Amino acid sequence: MKWSYRYPSTRTTHIETGAVFDIKYVGHDGTFDEMVLIQVFGSGKKFSENEILLFKKEFWSFYSEEKIRYEMSSLLNNEFIGDPLLLVRAIEAETKKDISTRTVQAWLIEPEKKSSRKCPEWAFKALNDYLKKPENVNFLSEIKLSREKNSHIKTSWSMQVYDKYSVKFATNEIEQEEKKLKEWEQANFPTLAKKLFMLELKTERHLKYLQDHVFALTHAIKKATNLEDLKAMVENEIKEKELVDYFIKDTRKAIENKSEEFSENIDQS
How far is CA 184 from the centre of its chain? Predict the structure, then answer.
């Protein structure tokens, strides 16, 4: 991606050169010919008219895609009550093409993300065509009223993730793992040793947590005579383990900070 821009901002940055441009229009139709890019600062170079025209041609494509992404997001939140599935059904009804909620998520996610995909103009046109029909507007209004009346009925978190967030969450995981891999690849030996130690420590603590909970459950299964006993014994055992961990952690903190009973200034006489 060569441009840093979010519609409807009136300023954009060309990433490769660092040049910043204000976006102006000499008319009211918002066409390519009406758009004017005015260099305001950055790059250390004053670009010629021909160079700015080349920038404009390059930016227009990105600008058009970003505008569609913004306007489709607005339609989703305002006309389709934030439900990607309703939006999918509308596009399918108008185009007879099969798409998924993940497709919509990929269209709407930030353009710099690797999961981002260009929203085709036919899909955006289909939504506007759908909303021009009164029966469809009435249908969406009825859906909205029905959901407001039945607001106590909640969609499961798993289905919310599938319809709205799966692309975002998956993309975040990919980015976090790539960041961690880069950190490991760039680590020098002392840093590498520390990272391995912290990883081992984290793994040991996680295993201890699992072991404590498994022990509490298996111990209760052997001793309990009914379900209520089982629940109470598991809760008590886990609480006991947590108290032990707290006492040890609190004591360790005092030792390492040389505070309380371990203060170097404590009166030994």
Answer: 24
